Protein backbone atom coordinates (compact mmCIF):
# COMPACT_ATOMS: atom_id res chain seq x y z
CA UNK A 1 0.00 0.00 0.00
CA UNK A 2 1.48 3.39 -0.98
CA UNK A 3 2.24 5.92 1.74
CA UNK A 4 -0.11 8.84 2.29
CA UNK A 5 2.48 11.18 0.73
CA UNK A 6 2.62 9.02 -2.42
CA UNK A 7 -1.17 8.89 -2.64
CA UNK A 8 -1.44 12.67 -2.27
CA UNK A 9 1.26 13.14 -4.92
CA UNK A 10 -0.68 10.88 -7.31
CA UNK A 11 -3.80 13.01 -6.79
CA UNK A 12 -1.79 16.17 -7.48
CA UNK A 13 -0.37 14.56 -10.63
CA UNK A 14 -3.87 13.62 -11.83
CA UNK A 15 -5.13 17.15 -11.25
CA UNK A 16 -2.21 18.66 -13.15
CA UNK A 17 -2.63 16.29 -16.12
CA UNK A 18 -6.36 17.09 -16.17
CA UNK A 19 -5.51 20.81 -16.19
CA UNK A 20 -3.11 20.36 -19.12
CA UNK A 21 -5.83 18.58 -21.14
CA UNK A 22 -8.24 21.42 -20.45
CA UNK A 23 -5.62 24.09 -21.29
CA UNK A 24 -5.13 22.31 -24.61
CA UNK A 25 -8.82 22.77 -25.44
CA UNK A 26 -9.10 26.27 -23.97
CA UNK A 27 -5.95 27.48 -25.70
CA UNK A 28 -7.23 26.18 -29.04
CA UNK A 29 -10.68 27.74 -28.76
CA UNK A 30 -9.51 31.08 -27.34
CA UNK A 31 -6.57 31.32 -29.76
CA UNK A 32 -4.27 31.72 -26.78
CA UNK A 33 -1.25 30.13 -28.41
CA UNK A 34 1.01 30.71 -25.41
CA UNK A 35 -1.46 28.75 -23.26
CA UNK A 36 -1.68 26.05 -25.95
CA UNK A 37 2.14 25.86 -26.16
CA UNK A 38 2.37 25.43 -22.39
CA UNK A 39 0.78 21.99 -22.79
CA UNK A 40 3.71 20.38 -24.63
CA UNK A 41 7.23 19.15 -24.12
CA UNK A 42 9.78 20.87 -26.36
CA UNK A 43 9.35 18.12 -28.96
CA UNK A 44 6.03 16.42 -29.55
CA UNK A 45 4.78 13.50 -31.60
CA UNK A 46 1.52 14.38 -33.36
CA UNK A 47 -0.76 11.62 -34.64
CA UNK A 48 -3.90 12.77 -36.46
CA UNK A 49 -3.73 9.88 -38.92
CA UNK A 50 -7.09 8.31 -38.03
CA UNK A 51 -9.88 10.32 -39.60
CA UNK A 52 -7.65 13.02 -41.08
CA UNK A 53 -5.09 10.99 -43.03
CA UNK A 54 -2.18 13.10 -41.81
CA UNK A 55 1.00 11.09 -41.21
CA UNK A 56 2.40 10.79 -37.70
CA UNK A 57 5.08 13.44 -37.24
CA UNK A 58 7.65 14.30 -34.59
CA UNK A 59 8.37 18.02 -34.41
CA UNK A 60 9.29 20.93 -32.22
CA UNK A 61 6.28 22.03 -30.18
CA UNK A 62 6.75 25.60 -31.42
CA UNK A 63 6.32 24.33 -35.01
CA UNK A 64 3.20 22.38 -34.01
CA UNK A 65 1.69 25.53 -32.47
CA UNK A 66 2.62 27.66 -35.51
CA UNK A 67 0.91 25.11 -37.77
CA UNK A 68 -2.20 24.75 -35.62
CA UNK A 69 -2.86 28.46 -35.08
CA UNK A 70 -3.82 29.46 -38.64
CA UNK A 71 -6.09 26.42 -39.03
CA UNK A 72 -8.04 27.15 -35.88
CA UNK A 73 -8.09 30.92 -36.44
CA UNK A 74 -9.64 30.34 -39.87
CA UNK A 75 -12.89 29.21 -38.27
CA UNK A 76 -15.49 31.68 -37.03
CA UNK A 77 -15.63 29.60 -33.84
CA UNK A 78 -14.52 26.26 -32.39
CA UNK A 79 -15.42 24.39 -29.24
CA UNK A 80 -13.38 21.44 -28.00
CA UNK A 81 -15.03 19.57 -25.13
CA UNK A 82 -12.83 17.07 -23.33
CA UNK A 83 -14.42 14.64 -20.87
CA UNK A 84 -14.13 11.17 -19.30
CA UNK A 85 -10.42 11.42 -18.59
CA UNK A 86 -8.78 8.13 -17.64
CA UNK A 87 -5.20 8.60 -16.46
CA UNK A 88 -2.77 5.72 -16.01
CA UNK A 89 0.78 6.04 -14.73
CA UNK A 90 3.93 4.29 -15.88
CA UNK A 91 6.24 5.03 -12.98
CA UNK A 92 6.57 8.45 -11.41
CA UNK A 93 7.27 10.53 -14.52
CA UNK A 94 5.20 9.06 -17.38
CA UNK A 95 1.44 8.85 -17.81
CA UNK A 96 -1.20 8.27 -20.46
CA UNK A 97 -4.49 10.14 -20.53
CA UNK A 98 -7.35 8.86 -22.65
CA UNK A 99 -10.12 11.44 -22.93
CA UNK A 100 -13.25 11.81 -25.01
CA UNK A 101 -13.39 14.80 -27.32
CA UNK A 102 -16.20 16.50 -29.20
CA UNK A 103 -14.68 19.17 -31.40
CA UNK A 104 -17.11 21.56 -33.10
CA UNK A 105 -15.97 23.83 -35.92
CA UNK A 106 -18.11 26.66 -37.29
CA UNK A 107 -17.53 28.60 -40.50
CA UNK A 108 -20.24 30.17 -42.64
CA UNK A 109 -19.24 29.37 -46.23
CA UNK A 110 -20.50 28.74 -49.76
CA UNK A 111 -19.62 25.02 -49.86
CA UNK A 112 -22.40 23.63 -47.67
CA UNK A 113 -23.32 23.62 -44.00
CA UNK A 114 -21.52 25.90 -41.59
CA UNK A 115 -20.71 23.25 -38.97
CA UNK A 116 -18.54 20.17 -38.68
CA UNK A 117 -18.11 18.05 -35.57
CA UNK A 118 -15.47 15.44 -34.75
CA UNK A 119 -16.32 12.80 -32.15
CA UNK A 120 -13.53 10.67 -30.76
CA UNK A 121 -10.86 10.51 -28.13
CA UNK A 122 -7.34 11.62 -27.41
CA UNK A 123 -4.68 9.21 -26.22
CA UNK A 124 -2.00 11.58 -24.97
CA UNK A 125 1.33 10.56 -23.51
CA UNK A 126 2.54 12.81 -20.69
CA UNK A 127 5.98 13.36 -19.22
CA UNK A 128 6.83 15.10 -15.98
CA UNK A 129 9.19 18.00 -16.76
CA UNK A 130 10.82 20.70 -14.68
CA UNK A 131 7.74 22.81 -15.59
CA UNK A 132 5.22 20.14 -14.60
CA UNK A 133 3.36 17.56 -16.65
CA UNK A 134 3.43 18.12 -20.42
CA UNK A 135 2.12 16.27 -23.48
CA UNK A 136 4.93 14.45 -25.32
CA UNK A 137 2.60 12.66 -27.74
CA UNK A 138 -0.85 13.77 -28.86
CA UNK A 139 -2.99 11.24 -30.70
CA UNK A 140 -6.53 11.95 -31.90
CA UNK A 141 -8.71 8.99 -32.84
CA UNK A 142 -11.73 10.27 -34.75
CA UNK A 143 -14.56 7.76 -34.40
CA UNK A 144 -17.06 9.65 -36.55
CA UNK A 145 -17.73 13.07 -37.98
CA UNK A 146 -20.89 14.92 -38.82
CA UNK A 147 -21.63 18.02 -40.83
CA UNK A 148 -19.78 19.60 -43.71
CA UNK A 149 -16.66 17.53 -44.30
CA UNK A 150 -15.24 20.26 -46.57
CA UNK A 151 -15.17 22.81 -43.76
CA UNK A 152 -11.47 22.31 -43.02
CA UNK A 153 -10.59 23.03 -46.64
CA UNK A 154 -12.96 26.01 -46.70
CA UNK A 155 -11.34 27.40 -43.54
CA UNK A 156 -7.98 27.65 -45.27
CA UNK A 157 -9.30 28.57 -48.73
CA UNK A 158 -9.18 32.06 -50.22
CA UNK A 159 -11.79 34.47 -48.95
CA UNK A 160 -14.09 34.05 -51.96
CA UNK A 161 -15.31 30.69 -50.56
CA UNK A 162 -16.37 32.32 -47.30
CA UNK A 163 -19.92 33.53 -47.03
CA UNK A 164 -20.52 37.23 -46.59
CA UNK A 165 -20.82 38.35 -42.97
UniProtKB/TrEMBL annotation:
<feature type="domain" description="SnoaL-like">
    <location>
        <begin position="9"/>
        <end position="138"/>
    </location>
</feature>
<dbReference type="InterPro" id="IPR037401">
    <property type="entry name" value="SnoaL-like"/>
</dbReference>
<dbReference type="Pfam" id="PF13577">
    <property type="entry name" value="SnoaL_4"/>
</dbReference>
<protein>
    <submittedName>
        <fullName>3-phenylpropionate/cinnamic acid dioxygenase small subunit</fullName>
    </submittedName>
</protein>
<keyword id="KW-0560">Oxidoreductase</keyword>
<dbReference type="InterPro" id="IPR032710">
    <property type="entry name" value="NTF2-like_dom_sf"/>
</dbReference>
<keyword id="KW-0223">Dioxygenase</keyword>
<dbReference type="GO" id="GO:0051213">
    <property type="term" value="F:dioxygenase activity"/>
</dbReference>
Amino acid sequence: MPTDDARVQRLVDRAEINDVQLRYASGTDSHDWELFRSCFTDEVEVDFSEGFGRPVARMKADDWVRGTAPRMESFAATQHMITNLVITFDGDDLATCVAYVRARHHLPNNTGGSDQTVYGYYTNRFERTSHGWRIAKVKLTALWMTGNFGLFQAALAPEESAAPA
